[in-house]
Sequence to fold (150 residues):
Amino acid sequence: MSPFTSLSRISAWQRGLLVLLLLWVGALNAHLAPREVVFIDTGVADWQVLRDGVKPGVEVALIGGNADGLAQMAAWMSGGKSGYDAVHVLSHGAEGQVQLGTLTLDTATVGTRVADLAALGLALTSEGDLLLYGSGGGAYPDGGRPRRPR
Fold:
């Protein structure tokens, strides 16, 4: 006897209980899935390819290239967004800086943007990550690789 044929023999009360159990399991699975968002700077060449490559279930937000990208990200996050396990940022960069729309975020400007950075931090879980990906970002001055300590 198939397990599915036996389902037709259970009472309406038992079927209702089974439906509630399945809904609860579905909600639990949705809660356990990592919550992520990818911010893509539209100033990056072929940004549409990057957007189209984002895995299903991950939110995508675009940073307009003609405005302050960090302010755009903070505004998006302040709209009740929270509980993110990861915030990914795809943009341009160079050694020690990242380009977010019209803003160049580096050691000189980071101290002036504490409120916007805090908005990003508040949207993350306690174990959440802010991950920066950029063309040229974090490059080493000699174009080489990181050196191991001696």
User: Anything to note?
Assistant: Residues 1-33 form one domain.
